[in-house]
Structures are given as structure tokens and as C-alpha cells.
Amino acid sequence: MNNTLRLFLLSVMLLVGTIVHATSKAAFCGYFDNDNKMDSVFVTVSEGSSATFFDITYVFSTLSRPIVTACTYNFSELLFFCPIPDVVAHRSKFVAQLAHELVPTAVANTDSNAMRWMDEVCANGNFLRDGYFDYKSHFSIKWGKPKAFQPSYAIMQRAAIACLLPDEDSATGSKTANSLVVYMANNHQGIVKTIATPGFNVLVTKHGVLLETAGKRAWVFINESAIFKMGTEKLRWASVTDVQISGDHLLINTIAIPSQQRSSFVICMKMWRLYRLSDYVAEPIAILSDQLNCN
Questions:
Q1: Which residues, 6 or more positions from 214, have their beta carbon under 8 angstroms from its beta carbon?
Q2: Beta strands in the chain (DSSP E)
Q3: Count of alpha carbons within 13 Å of 92, Cβ hemisphere only?
Q4: Model confidence over 48-86: pLDDT tens digits?
Q5: 231: pLDDT confidence band, cut at 50, 70 and 90?
Q6: Secondary structure tally for the chain: helices H, strands E
Q7: What angle do CA 255, 256, 260 make, to 5 degrees?
Q8: Which pTM does this prediction carry?
Q9: Is 22 helix (H, G, I), strand (E, B) or coil?
Q10: Nearest to 126, CA basis, from 274, 294, 261
């Protein structure tokens, strides 16, 4: 191998190492676990091309040994979860400080309307192929005033959100009962399209759909890959490509980038049932109303 080629390969390896393994470290101290002795938290952040990895070490004076946890934010998902020691899970100041280390722009309290929708659809989902469909679910609609599109966080019991947790996390379990949930709602990038219909408006984001009526809104679709097991590689690319209305049916077309895998979802607005078609279609499919069981 000549010197020129050797130098070129070394440069490539160093560049890849910088992209995949760039790390940063932070620490903060305080009286976190309800005594008068100083506690410390150490956070190591590793930036990859498709995810950010967090390793967190909690050194609490009331515990005989440190607690070590890890969590991952995949750039294809709107949600990520970090186990949090139960001794500090309900200390709002501590949680705010930890959340700031993970996502500096995040504010307290997730959009409960969005979280409720994602949790219900996930919990009620069925991936068994059935005629026209390969996924079915249902949800209840709840009108309210969803938060602005910005990162937000909340503490939730892991048992209550088990369906949304990463597969490897659910399989191995956790020694903590609570998790810091971060909802990266900024990736919706606001309302990009509005469809006016009698009685309500349909509001479309890059990755979701809301309905709006009488000054209130409700999520009816969020293209979270943790739920549907497919999605876009990075959320900077819009995954919702088209939204149409046909009678009581809401048709939502999506695309997974870069695989270019397209999907069609149908929401029956009478029963709030959600279906994913086995095969992508580009036009409204009111002819399937009998199979959709919207009545």
C-alpha cells in the first residue's frame, strides 16, 4: 500500500470516527436524594449518524453504589425514553436539570393529547394481515389544546407506557419504575397544510394530522415508527405525503425515506378506527367502506 493511499484511508477512518463517535461529557451536583449530602450526576453523550446515545451515572449519598443507565434517541422517532432512579423521579427541579442536559430546548410536560393517542394506538394495534389490511388499531378522540411544536418531557411510569418502549428495553426490563419521556415535537415543524371541511379543519404536519373545531384540536395520526415499525430514517424529511377526505374516511399516505416504502392509512372518523392497507393506494378508497366497518 503506497503512502498516498494509506494517508487517504487514515483520513477517512478519522472522519468516520468523528461522525459516529463524537462525544461530550457533563456533570451536575446538588442535594438530590433528600439528605444534606452532595450528589453527582455524570452524562456522556455520543453523537452518531442516526442516533444520539446517552450514558448516565447517578452517584447518590443514600445509595451504596452508583446507578448507571443508558438511553438512545433515534433520529427516526419522535419519542425517546430514559430510565430514571425512582428516588428522584418526582423531584421536579432535578428532572428539569436532567432533561436540560439531554435536550436543552425541552420544556416540562409533554403534549398529553399526543401521548394519549400514541399510547392508545400502540396498545390496541394488531399487525396480523387481514384482507386489505396489515395493521389495525383504534383510539378515542379527545379535544383540547395541544402544546406548541417544541421538545417536551415528563416522568411516566414505565408499566403504563410499556408498548411504546423500545423492544430491547421491554425485553430486558428495567430496575426503575419510572422513565423520563422526551417528545421531540419540533420535528412536526408546525402546520404545513390546512384542509377546510364542513364542521372542522384538517391540520397536516410533516409527520402527523390533527383535527380542529371550535378552537380545539385533537391528534388523529402521528407517524411514530415505534408504533408502526416503519418510518423515515430522519425526521427532517416529511413522512406524510398526502391527506385526503372521502366521506367519513380520512386517507393518509406516508413514505419512508430513504427506502421509499410507501404506506396508506385510513381513519374511520365515526368509530375512530385506524387501518394500514397492505398495498399503497394514491386515491381515496371509499369503495372499501364495507370492509372498513366505519358504520
A1: none
A2: 22-30, 39-47, 51-59, 67-74, 79-84, 107-108, 133-138, 152-157, 178-183, 193-197, 200-204, 208-213, 216-222, 240-246, 249-256, 261-268, 273-277
A3: 3
A4: 988 999 999 999 998 889 999 999 999 999 999 999 999
A5: confident
A6: 6, 17
A7: 80
A8: 0.87
A9: strand
A10: 274
How are beta strands 208-213 and 200-204 bridged, if at all? antiparallel
Phi, psi of 276 (to 5 degrees): -110, 125
172 Cβ contact list (under 8 Å, min separation 6): none
Contacts of 110 (CB under 8 A, 6+ apart): 147, 152, 153, 154, 181, 182, 183
The pLDDT score that the predictor gives to residue 128 is: 85
**Grid cell at residue 269:** 372518523
Cell of 125: 394495534
Query: What are the tens digits of pLDDT across the range 120-171?
Result: 999 999 998 877 899 999 999 999 988 889 999 999 999 999 999 987 665 4
